[in-house]
């Protein structure tokens, strides 16, 4: 059981199609969990993002890693679809849900990195907030009762950054900061029921989209470090996944409830490594190489 500490546990990874969500789903599976993988990108239809990854692929990777992957196509902006997803989990798993991970995002094509708020398209910005924040609220609204009924569980809100530092674009910053606040507010309401809620961020994440941007794969990603030396300190989605799996297996995780966490603050405590055996520390690299240009990351929230 030591190498499968989540055997018998049930997890839902919303937005588990790719990137950090996929990394988390696979690592929860490697720890023995049954993982429901939800999102819009499916073999039966895309999400509009034009990406090739699907929830079925992620679910297969979960099973290959040693867990049980269950793909369920769900648009998390639609309350009725989310309600149906949670009702299915409750029916198939005797009302059990131990881990809820919300990694729903899809905001990359909606983010304007060039212009200030007053020059941006308002409709696009509000759409980003609906996609990146409202979806998290909707998902929690329907999933949390399963945890409250059992008096235990862990909610993980995936974000970007664990400080109040501005993230470079108004709507992007608002969305990512709001997700941290969601975790804090949920922690306050869930604490009397024995359920923990945290936010977590990776460092420089080698998502599928980032790898495509650099024209490399996970196998040869170091070829891109000549183009961007900071990429040397990047991390794979497995690193984030192992951080979440460690939290889910921690019997004292309530001690962290309400906090904004990061892979670089957890690897030493839990002893996990990235897929290649390294232990990237994005905060340490930032302090050494980026602070003069971009300022400090700030204190953890």
Automatic annotation (TrEMBL):
Pfam families the UniProt entry points to: adh_short
Species, as recorded: Actinomadura montaniterrae
Protein name according to UniProt: SDR family NAD(P)-dependent oxidoreductase
SUPFAM superfamilies cross-referenced by the UniProt entry: NAD(P)-binding Rossmann-fold domains (SSF51735)
Source lineage: Bacteria, Bacillati, Actinomycetota, Actinomycetes, Streptosporangiales
């Amino acid at each position: 059981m030591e190498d499968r500490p989540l055997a018998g546990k049930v997890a839902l990874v919303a937005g588990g199609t790719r990137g950090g969500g996929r990394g988390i789903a696979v690592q929860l599976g490697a720890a023995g969990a049954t993982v429901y993988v939800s999102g819009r990108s499916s073999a039966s239809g895309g999400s509009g993002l034009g990406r090739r990854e699907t929830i079925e692929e992620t679910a297969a990777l979960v099973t290959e890693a040693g867990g049980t992957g269950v793909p369920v196509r769900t648009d998390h902006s639609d309350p009725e679809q989310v309600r149906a997803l949670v009702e299915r989990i409750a029916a198939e798993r005797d009302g059990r849900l131990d881990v809820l991970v919300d990694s729903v995002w899809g905001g990359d094509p909606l983010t304007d990195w060039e212009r200030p708020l007053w020059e941006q398209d308002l409709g696009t910005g509000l759409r980003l907030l609906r996609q990146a924040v409202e979806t998290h609220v909707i998902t929690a609204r329907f999933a949390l009762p399963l945890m409250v009924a059992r008096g235990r569980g862990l909610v993980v809100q995936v974000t970007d950054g664990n400080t109040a530092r501005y993230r470079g674009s108004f709507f992007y910053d608002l969305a990512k900061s709001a997700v941290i606040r969601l975790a804090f507010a949920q922690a306050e309401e869930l604490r009397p029921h024995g359920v923990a809620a945290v936010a977590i961020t990776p460092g420089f994440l080698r998502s599928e989209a980032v790898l495509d941007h650099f024209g490399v794969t996970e196998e040869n990603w170091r070829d891109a470090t000549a183009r961007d030396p900071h990429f040397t300190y990047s991390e794979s989605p497995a690193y984030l996944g192992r951080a979440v799996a460690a939290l889910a297996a921690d019997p004292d995780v309530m001690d962290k409830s309400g906090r904004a966490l990061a892979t670089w603050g957890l690897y030493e405590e839990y002893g996990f490594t990235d897929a290649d055996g390294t232990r990237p520390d994005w905060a340490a690299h930032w302090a050494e190489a980026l602070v003069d240009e971009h300022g400090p990351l700030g204190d953890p929230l």
